[in-house]
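Hi support team,

I'm opening this ticket because the web form for multi-chain structure prediction keeps timing out on my end. I have pasted the exact lines I submitted so you can reproduce it. The total is 255 residues across two entries, so I didn't expect it to be a heavy job. Is there a limit I'm missing, or should I split the entries? Thanks in advance, R.K.
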Amino acid sequence: MKLATWNVNSLAVRLPQVLDWLQQHPVDVLVLQETKLTDDKFPAADIEAAGYQVQWFGQKTYNGVALLSRVPATDVVKNIPGFPDEQARVIAASVNGIRCVGAYFPNGQAPDSDKFVYKMSWLEALQAWLRAELQSHERLVLMGDFNIAPEDRDVYDPVAWAGQIHCTPQERTHFQGLLQLGLVDAFRLFEQAPKSWSWWDYRNLAFRRNQGLRIDHILVSEALRGQISACEIDKLPRKNERPSDHAPVIVSLAD
DNA sequence: ATGTCACCTGGTAGGTGA
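Hello R.K., no limit was hit. The queue was backed up. Here is the completed structure from your submission:
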């Protein structure tokens, strides 16, 4: 079984690339972030024609998430229960006995901004909810755009980025808090090339220079850890014409 | 060089968010 996450930065723009990518990588589950579509505009028919079930949860202009699956997803949850939020950031569902949580974590903008305060409270709520969710769902995968680079080796220039958004101690502490729930960063279960990133700024020729961050992650629960056989970032879509600024991340589970 | 992209409003450019 394969699961993947991809921040597509507008599904209206990127739908052809998503469908192409699914043909090349027929994963069992794909969660999307930054669909940027209201629910009435979501291209469900095109996705279903490609052989996927789909659940979606969006809003105008910003945010928006979706969960695609080969087999029907059940017990769908949208956003964090008990955390009222006007922003559409989370979609969760059970697929093949695995609780799949797709999330678009707040960006946070800057450590001294109101958006950072929101990011911190959102992270608190996420952690509390996942702690409970793990009680009832031993086999759980949390994946998405975390907007957190967990360690300096996840940053192309850790000195320049020290204390900056995605790299603050507060954000990194929250990431560690997720690990302390019993989740593990699937990417780091395997030997990886140095300077492996999942996001490159559109500016500054950042992709050509490989100046990026690893901020898209797949965390798996302890009950699944022994089944994880691979975790990779697929850089190829970032080379497309009109690419998303993020690359997909894929995890493979042995049956 | 903060050198781009996507989306909005309200027009044919400017602001916002990432």
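A quick check on our side: Residues 9-10, 12-13, 34, 36, 60-62, 107, 109, 115, 147, 201-206, 242, 245 of chain A lie near DNA strand B (CB under 10 Å from a C1'). Let us know if the file doesn't open in your viewer.
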